[in-house]
Amino acid sequence: MASSMRISRLLSRSFLSASTTPLFSRGGSGALGAGLSKFSTAAAIEEPIKPPVKVEHTQLLIDGKFVDAATGKTFPTLDPRTGDVISHVAEGDHEDVDRAVAAARKAFDHGPWPKMTAYERQRILLRAADLFEKHNDELAALETWDNGKPYEQSAQIEIPMLVRLFRYYAGWADKIHGLTVPADGPYHVQTLHEPIGVAGQIIPWNFPLVMFAWKVGPALACGNTIVLKTAEQTPLSALYASKLLHEAGLPPGVLNVISGFGPTAGAAIASHMDIDKLAFTGSTETGKVVLELAARSNLKPVTLELGGKSPFIVCEDADVDEAVELAHFALFFNQGQCCCAGSRTFVHERVYDEFIEKAKARALKRAVGDPFKGGIEQGPQVTYPYV
After folding, report:
1. Are residues 320 and 214 in the same domain?
2. Rounded CA gap, 232 and 261, in Å?
């Protein structure tokens, strides 16, 4: 609870300020402004704020190069504020997954990454973290533009978390040790931890760069190579972050990024015979499909992080004002698009009426609007919530 209170206060300082000063200059057309009015609580219709970043990378990343999809197809990634197209992104399919897996396999079997000393891998990951920190504002702007979450959340919480996570995993690179095991008789028994090989990874749309860090960071620290599929709703920030990783010295083929859709690119990764390990974050229903595809192929081990309903419990001796604020944060943080959102609230009957009254008042005060404006708590939904 103490940790939750600290997080809530930190976010409150960032998001709940009374300031409505725009962070960036306004831009866009009247049509865009009309789209914005659908979610804005402002009395007057305002045009969307122009994001201060240029989209540079929209192709697939395979073997260290940005390339078009084999079919030449693209798909639009949309501004959730308006539904307008931000850019057209290469649409990867099974042929592209095959190319990416072949590059990852070559990089693992014959490339320098698994053979590097752990210290050398650590240095590259630390350089990447420094570049993420240097490009904090660009990464945050891409994240907000593609996802709809408040820019202050992206810039002050999530990109610093991306940096911290990569530094954390970099620190593990030279601290993964085997064991010597006592044995009966004149024998020497030891365990040896080695990279598993090619890791397939599928990340969701709600926290694109944090999920990128959680998947990519530990796999790279251990010496694996990767084929990563981004969510079709939010492909842009991972491509930019991957470009920075290569600037930091990541060898070609170690990290390959496929933008595309679940039934095509995602299914190809889950069922690929030359992928050694699979990690998926998303809905429970899709997780079942991913697990089945992995089992029907080469029975690759699978790690699943799926959606759920997390209870928030308010006891009779609770500070009701504090409980209301924490419950509000637990449910509405990130537009409510969290795997562990506090979407069920249990309140003791003795404080129930007071809690309901204050919770309603807090919800009515929630600042909804353009996520690039200062003081906004909630931008547009990028897609439907987890179930």
Report:
1. no
2. 6
Let me know whether 323 and 252 are in one domain.
Answer: no
pLDDT for the residue 44: 52
- Identify whether residues 105 and 153 lie together within a single domain: yes
Angle between helices 208-221 and 136-147 (to 10 degrees): 130
81: DSSP letter? T
Encode 213-269 in three state secondary structure: HHHHHHHHHCCCEEEEEECCCCCHHHHHHHHHHHHCCCCCCCEEEEEECHHHHHHHH
Instruction: State the virtual CA torsion across 309, 310, 316, 320 in degrees, nearest 10.
Output: -100
Range of the domain at 342: 310-365
Domain CATH number, residue 153:
3.40.605.10
Based on the domain organization, do 147 and 232 belong to the same domain?
yes
Q: What is the 3-state secondary structure (H, E, C) of 264-287?
A: HHHHHHHCCCCCCEEEEEECHHHH
In a domain, 24, yes or no: no
Distance between the two ends of the chain, CA-based, in angstroms? 25
Q: What is the dihedral of CA 201, 205, 207, 208, to 10 degrees?
A: 50
- Could you tell me if 146 and 243 lie in one domain? yes
Are 293 and 315 in the same domain? no
What pLDDT is attached to residue 45? 64
In total, how many domains does the chain have?
2
Check if 292 is active-site.
no
316 within domain boundaries: yes
Average pLDDT per block of 10 residues along the chain, 387 residues long:
40 35 35 41 70 96 98 97 96 98 98 96 98 98 97 98 98 95 94 96 96 98 98 97 98 98 97 98 94 97 89 96 97 90 94 98 96 96 63
Catalytic hit among 305, 316, 325, 377: 305
Same domain (yes/no): 96, 144: yes
Give the Cα separation of 67 and 71 in Å (integer). 11
Token pair for 136: 């904090």
pLDDT at 308: 74
Would you state the structure tokens that stand for residue 378, as one six-digit string?
Answer: 């909630």
Token pair recorded at residue 222: 């251990």
